[in-house]
Amino acid sequence: MLLREVSYARPGTVDEAIALLAEHDGARALAGGQTLLNVMKQRAASPDVLVDLGRLDELRTISVSGAALEIGAMTTLTSLIRSSEVDVTRPILAEVAATVADVQVRNRGTLGGNICVNDPTNHFPPLLVALDATMTVAGVDGERTVPAEEFFVGVFETTVREGELLTKITVPAGGKGSGDGMSGVTLGAHGTYIANAAASVVDGTWRIALGCVGAVPVRATAVESALSQGVDEASARAAVEGLGATLDPPSDVHASADYRRSLAETSIVRAVLQAHERAGG
Ligand SMILES: Cc1cc2nc3c(=O)[nH]c(=O)nc-3n(C[C@H](O)[C@H](O)[C@H](O)COP(=O)(O)OP(=O)(O)OC[C@H]3O[C@@H](n4cnc5c(N)ncnc54)[C@H](O)[C@@H]3O)c2cc1C
Questions:
Q1: For residue 135, is pLDDT > 80?
Q2: How far apart, in Å, are the Cα atoms of 100 and each of 37, 45, 157, 193?
Q3: Ligand 1 atom closest to Cα of residue 192
Q4: Does residue 118 have a pLDDT over 80?
Q5: How close is the Cα of 221 to the center of ligand 1, in Å?
Q6: How many other CB atoms are found less than 10 A from the CB of residue 218?
Q7: Which strands sit side by side in the sheet containing 218-219, from one edge to the other?
Q8: Who lines ligand 1 at CB under 6 A?
Q9: What are the two backbone dihedrals, phi and then psi, of residue 204, each rounded to the nearest 5 degrees?
Q10: Segment 154-160 long-range contacts (CB within 8 Å, at least 24 positions apart)
Q11: Phi, psi dihedral angles at 172 (to 5 degrees)
Q12: Spatial distance between the Cα atoms of 7 and 26, rounded to a whole number of angstroms
């Protein structure tokens, strides 16, 4: 299906992009277009103005600043995979990017677009919550930083308001004594997740987030505290026992709610063991 008529702007700076988004009711940022153009073709979204971020090279940078990795919102998944900064500081980001869909989607799709969509089946929302990332959101009144846990507010909804732009994702650098893991079950190889878990440990302190069991990533805080005592397969299994009963996942054509509960528990055990091993076991 063809797109309906839409105005198009291609700003050269972030400030211009923000001004355009603030000026026009019904304006939408266009990143890689991998989701937005598809939903526009299906008439599920009908923005009046598309503000193409494609020329904003300042949003494509990846750098290490102090003890943090700073990733511009327009960084494509392919750039994450190829980045030496990511490889050195938080390689899980590249590893997960490499499992998303196919090469075309990874070449065009951006990290910012992936999380601004907040599709509950997307790979990065739970991972960024587990990694304790923060998002920088800019608008005409300035910038604010939002912890990943507060960034996702509902299905296809984030704290980015009309007229605002996500500019940067900041991820604390890993290092000695830290390890990350992600595990889940997808619909076929490189397919969409049915359920997943991301786990991160830094000096014995755990952060775990589940995907696909709610509108936003769900922190498994009871499991996190149960794990801080030490980890092996038996203790990881013991820590997740009963977790499924506290979850309220959707039931759909791919999996019943009960199956998702069970997958969530299994995914946590696998992600935790992976993270633990990478932290030096
Ligand atoms: C066939 C296919 C399969 C896929 N499978 C998976 C999968 O299994 N797992 C997965 O995680 N992802 C998957 N994706 C999604 C893909 O990874 C992209 O991340 C996603 O489509 C959005 O990224 P984008 O850059 O294309 O954003 P766009 O489509 O351009 O934008 C998406 C939304 O985010 C908003 N937006 C984008 N950037 C910003 C910004 N900087 N500030 C404010 N708002 C912004 C846009 O206005 C729009 O509403 C799939 C996509 C396709 C087409």
A1: yes
A2: 18, 23, 21, 10
A3: 8
A4: yes
A5: 28
A6: 23
A7: 178-186, 193-202, 205-211, 218-219
A8: 28-36, 73, 100-101, 105, 108-110, 112-114, 116-117, 122-124, 160, 165-166, 192
A9: 85, -5
A10: 154/118, 154/215, 154/216, 155/118, 155/119, 155/120, 155/215, 156/117, 156/118, 156/119, 157/118, 157/215, 158/115, 158/116, 158/118, 160/116
A11: -55, 140
A12: 11
Tell me how far the alpha carbon of residue 33 lies from the centroid of ligand 1, in angstroms.
Answer: 7
In this structure, which residue's CA is closest to atom 23 in ligand 1? 113
Residue 34 and residue 119 in contact, taking contact as beta carbons nearer than 8 Å: no
Whether the CB-CB separation of 260 and 195 falls below 8 Å is answered with yes
Q: State the pLDDT confidence band at 281, using cuts at 50, 70 and 90.
A: confident
The predicted-structure confidence for 66-107, as pLDDT tens digits, reads as follows 899 999 999 999 999 999 999 999 999 999 999 999 999 999
Contact 200, 108 (CB under 8 A): no
Which stretch of 125-129, 138-142, 229-233, 244-248 has the lowest confidence by average pLDDT?
229-233
According to the model, what pLDDT value does residue 178 have? 95
Residue 246, both tokens:
């506290």
- Cα of 110 vs centre of ligand 1, distance in Å, is 6
Cross-sheet strand order for the sheet of 27-30? 7-9, 49-52, 27-30
Cα 172 to middle of ligand 1, angstroms: 23
Q: Point out the ligand 1 atom lying closest to the alpha carbon of residue 101.
A: 5
How far apart are the two ends of the chain, measured CA to CA in Å? 52
**Atom in ligand 1 nearest the alpha carbon of residue 74:** 41
